[in-house]
Design goal:
By secondary structure, the protein is an alpha/beta fold. It contains 13 helices and ten strands.
């Protein structure tokens, strides 16, 4: 059955009108422990690296969650995530896009089970993460040519992925570092080929540099990708200057703020940027709306760790609905604009065009 004019979920094609409130960047089951295994924690917190992540240890780990190996997996927390999805639906949520690709231990059969048990629509992602993630999980992929990568994505979208009949409904998150590696550039070109052929949605993971986001868009456009069907994730920490943000929005790419709830600002975190708090993220969304880009915004939490789960005192999958939407209204983002961000824009993005 063709996906044209439909949204492809792990339970099959969905009419766009049935999509509802959508989080466009989440991970329902993930394992990215390599991220911490390769890190070098500051001396005063080295002892936290292999500490079990549990309630008894949360007080020790909450300020430095990205230096704890056990925190960087949720594939052992399916019961907790199932409860969160039920709560998400109770609070008005309807759909979650899972952006786990090769390099993150994607598990589409688990996503299908979540969808069946909760009634939450789940859209699975195809493709490849950034080079460090792929190198840590399936290093042989790094030698693949553009044509080979395209074949994998096309099969995921049209036949089924990982030996199942479950079809992916989006390419991504397509991962890039900064500067971009040769593998990552091939990954982008393969993505563009498949997007042009299928009219499918695409979602990108940029390295922590605004120049990288612009370069990714350029490579995709040159390869024939429809940028209007493409989301740039993590703008929260990628494009900081307000004028640069508007310039990026003018490319036609969908602008995503998907790190709501992530406010880590402690010295020694394994990144070179400062994470804005939720209030600042809301202000940036407001700026985009004020500049006329309310039709080009999506949101999410990018859940990828134990410490973000409610079970461990985290903000959970309902944080945007319960806490961020009131902030948006308070700063003057209208309910109509919020409905576009949560419902209309995801619907337009996720619907296959050919």
């Amino acid at each position: 059955m063709s996906s044209t004019g439909r949204i492809q979920t792990v339970l099959g094609p969905l009419a766009p009108s049935a999509l509802g409130v959508t989080l466009c960047h989440e991970h329902l089951s993930i394992d990215i422990r390599y991220f911490v295994e390769k890190s070098q924690p500051p001396e005063h917190i080295k002892h936290l690296k292999y500490l079990p992540f549990c309630l008894e240890n949360v007080d020790k780990l909450k300020d430095h969650p990205y230096f704890n190996v056990d925190n960087m997996r949720t594939d052992d927390e399916h019961d907790a995530i199932l409860e969160e999805l039920i709560y998400f639906k109770k609070n008005g949520g309807a759909t979650i896009v899972d952006n786990s690709t090769v390099g993150m231990k994607r598990d589409v059969e688990v996503y299908r089970e979540f969808a069946r048990k909760t009634g939450v629509n789940v859209v699975a992602g195809s493709g490849f993460y950034h080079e460090p993630g792929v190198a840590a999980s399936q290093p042989s992929v790094l030698a693949m040519a553009v044509e080979e990568m395209s074949e994998v994505m096309l099969k995921d979208l049209t036949e089924g992925c990982d030996g199942t009949d479950i079809k992916c409904g989006v390419i991504g998150e397509v991962g890039c570092s900064w500067p971009l590696t040769d593998f990552e550039k091939r990954n982008l070109r393969a993505t563009a080929e498949v997007q042009a052929a299928t009219g499918c949605p695409v979602i990108l993971h940029p390295g922590p540099n605004g120049d990288g986001a612009f370069e990714m868009v350029r490579i995709l456009q040159e390869a024939g990708c429809d940028i209007k069907k493409t989301v740039m994730s993590h703008l929260d920490r990628t494009i900081i200057d307000y004028d640069d943000l508007v310039t990026f929005a003018q490319t036609g790419c969908i602008c995503e703020y998907d790190m709501f709830g992530c406010e880590q600002a402690y010295e020694g975190q394994p990144w070179s940027f400062n994470m804005p708090d939720d209030d600042e993220k809301v202000r940036r969304v407001k700026h985009l709306c004020d500049e006329g880009f309310e039709d080009k915004i999506t949101v999410g939490h990018d859940h990828h760790s134990k410490h973000s789960l409610m079970k461990y005192g985290g903000h959970g999958f309902s944080h945007i609905l319960l806490n961020i939407v009131p902030k948006m209204l308070k700063v003057g983002i209208t309910q109509q604009q919020i409905d576009k961000i949560l419902i209309h824009n995801p619907k337009e993005w996720l619907t296959f065009k050919c």
